[in-house]
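Problem: given the chain below (277 residues), write out its structure.
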Amino acid sequence: MTSDATSASNPLLLFKDVALGYGGFTVLADIDIEVRRGQVVALMGGSGSGKTTLLRAATGQILPLRGTITAFGQNIAAASAGQLQALRQRMGVLFQQGALFTDLNVFENVAFPLREHTQVSESQIVERVLDKLDAVGLRAAAHLKISEISGGMARRVALARAIVLEPELILYDEPFAGLDPISLGITAQLIRNLTDRLHCASVLITHDVAESFAIADTVYMVGQGKLLASGRPDDLTQSADPYVRQFLNGEPDGPIAFNYPETPAFAQWLQQHGGRS
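Solution.
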């Protein structure tokens, strides 16, 4: 087997027995996640369940308290600053609010990563940017200011920027938040189509069940400080697990608590402020 074939068979992103947290508080423990090329993987859970913490860990913004996270076969915790930067350049990130530059037009927003990280010619930049804008249906909007486009269009511009370097791994932070039903459906199908077209891997940090289940190959559901369930969308739909059933059905009563759990750090803070436990 060639080295290329070997690398193609390995996960692009792997969490193995990972615990994540901040300070003295562990947010998630015993996390095992595997993301392979060509897959759309949904990381799901309620608000405060630790989804965004997983994204921060995948990009090396935080390091695991325990376990190993590897990206493209590299242990993120053992990577130098230069190696970590190189790993991040193989990733694309779609931020929840788009994070577009309001003083740049649509074209220049998408061109920004090419100007920052490559030495390609201006004609190549024009060709690549228009190609990615065409992929998200906004080629004819290249000249518009960010203030002249809708929220749904802005999300698609951000998506074009996230893929302009043709990354091997794309991370989406709540890609469906705030979208109308039509834009939501378009965005979901774009994620699926781009994953297939670029033969990359896409990871969705989301709590949107319907659209995620429609495009995902694998779903990981977190909550209660752990990995609650994983499998194909059909497997989770048929699950009898009470946690899974409550989340999928949006039921107010069940094992997933509404209140944020009390921690020793909170108890100490409360005592310092004269509050009652």
